[in-house]
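Work package 3, deliverable 3.1, input record:
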Amino acid sequence: MQYQLKTRQVCLFFIAFLPLAKLFMMPSVMAGKANEDMWMCALINLALDFLTAFIILKTTSKTDKNVYQLLEGKVGKGGTKFIMCLFFVYFLLKSLLPINEQKEYVIRTLYTLTPTLLYFLPFFFVCFYFCTKPLRVIGRASDVLWLITSLGIIILLCLSIGNFELSALLPVGANGIANVIEGSYATLTWFGDGLYLLFFMGEFSYRKKDNLKILGCYLLGALAVMVFVIVFYCVFTSIAFRQRFALTEISKYSTVINNIGRFDYIGIMMILFSNIFALSIPLFFSAKILSYIFSIKKKWVSPLIVVLFHAFVIIFLYQRIHGIEVFIMKFTGWFFLLTANILPIIICLTAKKEKGYAIKEN
Amino acid sequence: MKIFPNLKDNEKLLKQRLTSEDVTFLPINLGETKATIIFINDIVNKDSIGDLVLRPAYKLEGRLSFKEISNCFLFPEKVEIYTIKKVCDDVLLGNAVLIVDQSTTALSFGLKQFEKRAITEPPTSTVLKGPREGFVESLPVNISLMRRRLKSEHLIFENVTVGKYSKTPIALCYVDGIADKSLVKKLKGKLENISIDAVLDSSYISKYLGEHDISIFKQVGNTEKPDILAAKILEGRVAIFVDGSPIALTVPYLLIEDFQSPSDYYNSPYSATVARLLRFFSVLLALFLPAFFVASELFHLQLIPLSFLLTIVNSIKGIPLSPSYEMFFTIMIFEILNEASVRMPKYVGMVVSIVGGLVLGETAVNAGIISAPTLMIVALSGICLYTVPELEQTFSVLRILFLVVAGSLGGYGILVAIAIFFVHLITFENYNAPLCAPFSPLIKEDMKDAFYKGFLSELQFRPKSLRNKNKRRIDFDEYSKGE
Amino acid sequence: MQSRRTKFIFLAVLALFVFFFSSDFGLIDVEKTAIITAIAIDKDNDLYEVTAQIAVPEATDTNSENLKTQITAKDTTIGGAIKNLGDYSGWFPKLAFCNLILLGDSLLEDNVIDVLDYFAKSLRVQDSALVALADGKAGELISKATPLDNISAFALQKIMLKNVGFDADIASTDIKTFCVGHYSLNSSALMPIVKVIKSSENQTDTGGGGSSGAGSGTSSSGGGSSSKEDKNNLFDARTTALFVKGKKVGELSPELTQTYSALYKTFEGTSFSVNDVDFKGQKTNYLLSVVDCRPKIKLHATENDLRLSITLKLYCKISDHSADGSSEALSQNNPIPEKVKEKAEQYFTDNINELLRTEKQTGCDFMQIKQKLYRYNHKQYSRYKDNYLSVLKTDVNVSVFGQK
């Protein structure tokens, strides 16, 4: 059987893409809800995804089927299409805020003199091109981008050293559990990375102890998010909630920057580059799901539909985007929780071990 | 069409087909049997015709069978042929063909003698250390150069002729037991299916071997040096020699190949690693420096340190062109100078360099037509392009493309353009070999000869990026037994 | 399919070239941009008066220096005034390089955060820009010519940026730090006050000690003098202004600023004077430089007691002294004479007590006691959050040692 991915690529996927979309607006949303306890919001969401990833990997060790085959065997083609519709909507919604953030970031911080939407539009072109490729492209991209993402984050974090006080996280839990949960709920749209494993199921050769490698890499990605969130709050403390673009903000107080200019933009550019792909991945899956639901054979049709939808929202609904933002953060958390965590867990827990399937030895 | 038994009929037909005046029909007597030797005047070795064909022929007596006639020529390259077409082809190849009366078989003598160049160091890949031999335009010489390096029964050459008019001999070269047989079969099939008037150089063939027609990136490797080619085929690649071309093609091609200079393998791993990292860095500078500079000037002033920005503002005062046009036209001038200096006679080329470098450059800055930083960036980027000469053409096109993107869409536009090429590159496969291996897909074992050059003990296995057999190439166990 | 793709690529490249050569989709290139290096803000009646110092590169070679120009504009809002700068000059104001915001004392009648919030929120300005209060009119101060740099903003930045040895003398603050303080639990923040001094009047005293006090040969901040005379201007920013809820409530003298730095900032490499040390009736002045500084500030809160213990350990070496050759002090040059140590300890103890007194008097919690109460004694926070300054008891313990 020809697999589209390698276990190594699945591992690197989490290092390359897990932290990315979470480096822009998400930390300030968390800070607005839970102040110095914001790290707990991130921890809760990461733990939820970790649990989802763990259960999906358990199922991966029992079967060689991919998610479509698994569901078809259980609920039939019609039932599978219905469930896939939920995932399609999920991926479509999941990428809305991060793409809008990226757009805002690009046109407001990179193009300060001439902030027009025009400069962001080429993103949709690369997004479309990416979505027309087979699943292999995600693995291949992970092989390279893990290094670029890691370097970018390391550069920014190194530049932030010396400008943060860790004691800003004290006292722990003073904001109350309700605020922490509210912070977690509002930011669910940025998480849900465990779900990707459901779509990688059956697409890579699962060998003994692969779950440890993959979960280990998931934890590395999660650690990067946690460190970033903590450093962000420790740099800004009482004004953290006002920093909409955490990425650019945390490093600019470094003395290096005072001396040689915006050196941090090297790290920022690296992260922006990787983020182009991180933002395209939900669209990639929504396009593949759309092709499955409507049995679309031409590889460019579904990507075009999905990308045009997002381009339409970004270009024509820009005046309502704040409303959409609030709506997604306030009212769609349950849907994100259901589709990214509960549904995959149910699918996996009900899956039985495939006859004759044995985990390959390393 | 088969050869007629009647010599006259054969001659008549062949004279209709080979009408050119330099084709000679020389009638001779083989005892009592009449015969004709056909050859092209200027491309056969006439001394050999006299010594090896005519002299024994005149010693024959009586009526002889074809077999008796054939036996009297003690000539190593002697082939029996049976069709008129083959007679024509052999004559055109430069052989002498003997047709005998009352026989439906002809004899072809391999007497071709083309003028050939001496073996010299190829100008495109000179080295300080290491062999200096380069391929020439003669296929047999090139084959002999390979045979000299790999004296193995596993070194296989397979011949194909391509070109309706040129009938160019092409040889596939590989090491049996290392190269993937299916790849050889696929390549041979592709070559046999090529229908083209003439193959004047190996680059004519390379266009047919690529699996993606419109890609800007190279899909077939090439080299002019036998030592490099030997190393490549020992990694499992298949080489293609084209008669008349000093450049051998190799398939499959990986992008990293062109970053691996021959000198890397003759120097210490430390210096090779530094040189290789420099090459990567230079390519990045060559491709992106002009683009990011223009993007910074137009859209992202904050990326430039203030003191440098003041210098730039100072230098561009009074320049009539906007920064993007200025950079674009300076690069164009650079490309024109480059093109002219390659085409011009050697000594005039030197004048062009002086005029271009000193007169045009300095005067343009002094006259306020272009600014000094722009000139410096174009020059630096231009020099950096040549650290990987094999990819210079591709990169110079990409450099202009990135510049145009930078001038229109700024820094984010450049990132998007890079992303498009990135997606293209990582999904690009030629003959099952990913172009970007060993970076994407990441092949840990092959990284030892990618970003850095590993020690001998690290290079025990053939690259995994290629589909080759017999993975081990250095056996240290055997070596230690010998000790 | 192949030819369709070729056509698509051809059209895309063509469009890109058309876009490139048609150019100017609102493009503002570097020549049309005013590189603002500093902004001075004053208030004139109800209007904000914004003076921008713009770097004008006039140098013909790399050895000559750049020049500056200044433009002033007024409006009811800061953003409006900055916009007017562009309208008046035809340049597009680029604030990414603005590393200094100087506030005039006319702004002190209002809440300074109204001004700084514009810069904190705007993505066009780096909130890492230094912020300082001018002693007088900011617009005039920034126009003072100085021998340090042709662009006075650069000269000002030089004295306020973090440099080992000088960092401790000035409580430099950037927009972000000021806002963090302002929006924190204690709503307290501080920034340096910049005064103009004539270089001829400048004294070498580096920060007080004993009775001498800081050299502060200040001159009137009013401008208008000729450029030749102006070239003698230097800047002193060792005095610190204290703010509560955006209003100025007090000042820290240069000595207190330095002591504050010993407790809260990098103090290594700096020097302080210990004057009038009595050796057998002979008064000797010493200059000690700090090799290592170990402050420890602990707040301990119980139901009955709120106690702040400050321990400061300073490891110093003698940099200079005024003793003559025969003096006993000279023979005891190394290690530091006990009398010098005692005097230095007394000096810092007095200053720390003075800092605490200032904190209580002004209500400006620049020593972040409320924050410590919240972070480290959260259980007692509600008990003391409103009266912590009045019930606070303090233990101050300063020790000065010779070089380790």
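Residues 7-349 of chain A form a domain with the Amino acid/polyamine transporter I fold (CATH 1.20.1740.10).
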